[in-house]
Design a protein that fits this description.
Blueprint: E1 10-19, E2 24-33, H1 42-50, E3 83-87, H2 90-97, E4 105-110, H3 117-128, E5 132-136, H4 145-148, E6 153-157, E7 176-182, H5 185-193, E8 198-201, H6 219-233, H7 237-245, H8 248-258, H9 272-279, H10 281-293, H11 302-318, H12 325-337, H13 340-344, H14 348-352, H15 359-365, H16 373-383, H17 387-396, H18 401-419
Parallel strand pairs: 2-3, 3-4, 4-5, 5-6, 6-7, 7-8
Antiparallel strand pairs: 1-2, 1-8
């Protein structure tokens, strides 16, 4: 990430947008002014964010682009997933809406802003340019058809009245429903049963898994654990290659990670032996941790994998200017493994018997303190999009707002490269 002064003027949080297939189809980015009454530069903010989510179509294209399908969040098989911008400040939101916006953004607009003529004109201009718009909450009065026509989606909190905000004219499109504030799988299922096309939030508040009595995990999870344990012991190459040969699909996934743009190698890796030669045992261990987290076959695992990858990358970025390669690697593994119990559906104490991790990482994972726990708590505050908690945890670590935001955007960018 470049140095953008505007990153010191806002606090950023993020959460996933999850569809009925439990796939993460978009990132919701919440933006708070760092100080009440401050006026961050909207154009500079969008420029900084566009480093992570560029507009391949080009903002301001003439003639106006055809508006997107309101029920779709991706356009084309390889389209960039959109970003839903939730700007938690009226003045900054209006300044963002005044900018030329690319197709990568969906802008969330509170329902109470539907009464000002200037706001309605801005919405109609954005709609004509092809920008996706989502209305947040239920308006106090029915919306005119021409105003409702600006929106492709409506965002409601759980339990909020979802009755149609206005009757669309014959032949007009319907507004698709998104539910925000999802915290459990049951809430997610209820939202879909109620007609939502997607939900916003982290379904992390389900009860933790109970003891299984299994001494070892099964399937490719066991194979990845064998590789991690082999790297820890620095087993000879033939022994570790024999593990991979038992599972060609696992070998393919590992090579895919290692050859992603995020990894930054100038040569293509075609074998485990080549990877070990180029990376060494300890650097390879972090990528095996990533492979372990993505090995879950649980029905609702996709959002948790999405979070685990980003937790690891964000914790590593937060440590980039503060520690050596060992610390960064341990922070990466700490973030990845912080959701491992939910991903592999086993209690953490059972998993830690089979996964070799440093004592400092175990301390953080158990919530028992240590040097990495405050970083994990900061990452969790960012996920919960809580400006107060983000500031409090950053201050505890003596991290500036700029450092935190730069690390977050770098982590989100790298995660996209890994998954692309």
């Amino acid at each position: 990430m470049q140095d953008h002064p505007v990153l010191g003027q806002v606090a950023l949080g993020y959460s996933p947008m999850i569809d009925r297939q439990r796939a993460v189809v978009a990132t919701r980015l919440t933006v708070f002014p760092e100080r009440p009454g401050a006026e961050p530069d909207a154009a500079a903010l969008l420029q900084a964010l566009a480093e992570v989510w560029p507009d391949s179509a080009g903002a301001g294209t003439t003639p106006p682009r055809r508006p997107p399908d309101p029920s779709a969040l991706n356009h084309g098989a390889r389209a960039q997933p959109p970003v839903s911008l939730n700007v938690a400040d009226e003045a900054l939101l209006r300044a963002v809406m005044a900018q030329p916006l690319g197709l990568q953004w969906m802008i969330e607009v509170p329902a109470f802003m539907m009464t000002e003529a200037a706001d309605i004109v801005a919405l109609q201009r954005l709609r004509a340019a092809g920008t996706r718009l989502a209305i947040k909450g239920r308006p106090l009065a029915p919306l005119a058809t021409e105003v409702l026509a600006c929106f492709s989606h409506a965002i409601f909190e759980a339990g909020e009245d979802r009755r149609v905000v206005a009757r669309p004219a014959a032949g007009a499109r319907q507004v698709s429903t998104l539910q925000s504030g999802v915290r459990t799988t049951a809430e997610m299922v209820a939202a879909f049963d109620g007609g939502a096309v997607a939900v916003l939030g982290w379904p992390f508040d389900d009860p933790l898994p109970k003891a299984t009595g299994r001494s070892q995990p099964v399937g490719d999870v066991q194979a990845v654990l064998e590789l991690i344990q082999g790297v820890e012991r620095e087993d000879p190459l033939p022994r570790m290659e024999a593990v991979l040969k038992r599972d060609p699909a696992l070998a393919f996934r590992l090579m895919r990670f290692l050859n992603s743009p995020a990894f930054g190698l100038t040569v293509e890796i075609n074998s485990f032996g080549q990877a070990l030669m180029l990376l060494g045992y300890q650097r390879l261990k972090r990528w095996l941790a990533l492979l372990l987290a993505s090995s879950s076959r649980a029905a609702n695992a996709k959002p948790t994998v999405f979070a685990a990858v980003r937790r690891g990358l964000l914790m590593e970025e937060l440590a980039r200017s503060r520690g050596d390669a060992t610390m960064r690697g341990e922070m990466f593994i700490c973030g990845i493994f912080s959701l491992l119990d939910r991903l592999l559906e086993q209690p953490l104490p059972e998993l830690l018997r089979n996964v070799p991790v440093p004592d400092t990482v175990q301390q953080a994972l158990r919530g028992e303190g240590g040097p990495y726990l405050p970083y994990l708590q900061l990452v969790q505050a960012i996920e919960q999009e809580s400006a107060f908690d983000i500031r409090e945890n950053a201050d505890r670590l003596l991290l500036s707002t700029t450092e935190v935001n730069r690390a977050l955007l770098a982590a989100l960018q790298t995660a996209q490269q890994l998954e692309g």
